[in-house]
Amino acid sequence: MTTVTDHGPAADAIDARRWAAVLSRRVQPAAPSLAFVTLVLLLAVGGHVHRPWFDEAQAWLIARDASPWTLLAHAVRYEGSPGLWHLLLQAAQRLGLPFKGLWLVSSCLSALGAWLVLFRSPFPIALRIGLAFSYFFAFQYAVVARSYALDAALLPLIATLFPGRGRAPVSYAALLGLLANCNAHSFIISVPLAVEFAWTLRGDLSARRAGAAAALALCGLLGLAAALQAWPPADISSPSGHRSFSLLRAALLASEAVVDRLDIFSMQPPTGWSRLGGLAVTAAVITPIGLLSAAAGRARLFCGVLAAFLGFTAVQFGNLWHSGVLWLALLMLAWISWEGRSRAPAWRQRWLIGGLAVAVLCQDVATAKAWFREIGKPYSGAPAGAEALKVRLLAHPLETVAGLGDRSFGVQPWFARNLFANYRGGAAGPAYYVWSRTGSPPFTPMPRAWDAVLASGYDWVVVGDLNLLAPDKRAAFYRISAARSYCLKAAFPGAINWKGYSEEPDTLVLYGRCAARWAIATR
User: Fold this and answer.
1) Of 376, 394, 416, which closes a domain?
2) Considering the entire predicted model, what is its pTM?
3) Cβ atoms < 10 Å from Cβ of 479
4) What is the pLDDT of residues 467-503, one digit of tens each?
5) Domain that holds residue 446
6) N vs C: which end of the chain shows fewer Cβ within 10 Å?
7) Phi, psi for 402 (deg, rounded to 5)
8) What is the rounded CA–CA span in Å between residue 104 and residue 263?
């Protein structure tokens, strides 16, 4: 008997749907795993090519040269931040991690957050993969090793535990307490989360359940510890000085967190109109997240987190890298409110998904641009400068080295002791920079300080902030150098990489006596 098979259009459509279903069943479960492996490999490459700058070096030096008590009670107060990150680095150092492996700490934390997004978050799979490769997970809080890497892990962990916070209150409270101890912006975000947590446990407290009381006590103690560590001393100084109230600064940081520009493929800093357009798109992305939170009954939490971050930024301070904390907080809010999507009309659901997709696309492009620049150009000149100085001092161990400008301290972690003869009287340590008006005035990169350093007759002077000075002050440096018979011997280029463009220079320059020979050619 002959069987006649219909190969018409209807049968072809059925076959296509069948193959699509088979492909979806087999490929879709493997996609998050493949994305995670790709991300880990990417971060491993980045760790080897990244050149850490002063802020990364400073935290490492505090962890290396301060005892736990000195670290928490004194050193981090001048940093304006709690000491959880520094304690983590201290533990890594005790386990034998060298400074060149610092990226492993931040990359592991960021990879943990990305893993939670890929495997535990409720978002559609394409969105989860895009989020894993967004700028703060895949570059800024991973390869650039700073305390914000803790946020990349803790905020997804908080989102994961949020539904069961009443059943496991102590664990959730511990996460909130740790979040408060990451950095100042995390502390601010932890406050509305702690208030929401206390409100959730109010029934358990009235019933005098020990678990609820213990959880809130733990959260409060950790929060108090964070506040005491970050409380600034009377003589603290800052390279930025006092900042006045600025709503514009807060708005622009929100834009940096989500969509910073319209010309997303440009490798140059955003211009006015492009930045203004990015701010409008950011508002269009954040609004449906707020509506989603309201639908899930978490409107007050959403408003509290957003107002806390933007208010603190407007009143106190905020730099570009702080913006990622807001991005992670918005992701957490969308995560814990996702069940409210089903209660929203279809047009609002499309707005939410579309807005997140646009934000993720822009973030992933920023990641790609940042990696392109990172591989091609050094983030900081400090590691190359330190290597050159090591070679020189190995051949001439009696020569003295001085430093000027806080960025010059980027070379310090590459040496076992304090390198600078003009810092702490040349004592072996500690080698970290103290942001004190009374303790570190010689390191202000001003012409008068420069003249005083050269007059002391050091063989070599490392200058880390020269390119940040105004042209007239740089000209004064050059005049003083010529008068004191000091010449530029080497320059080690670097530029802080922000979303693929140079946010500011981080070039290290080395001056020495004009008659002295320097084996490393000027770069």
Assistant:
1) 376
2) 0.91
3) 12
4) 777 888 889 889 999 999 999 999 999 999 999 999 8
5) 382-513
6) N
7) -115, 165
8) 33
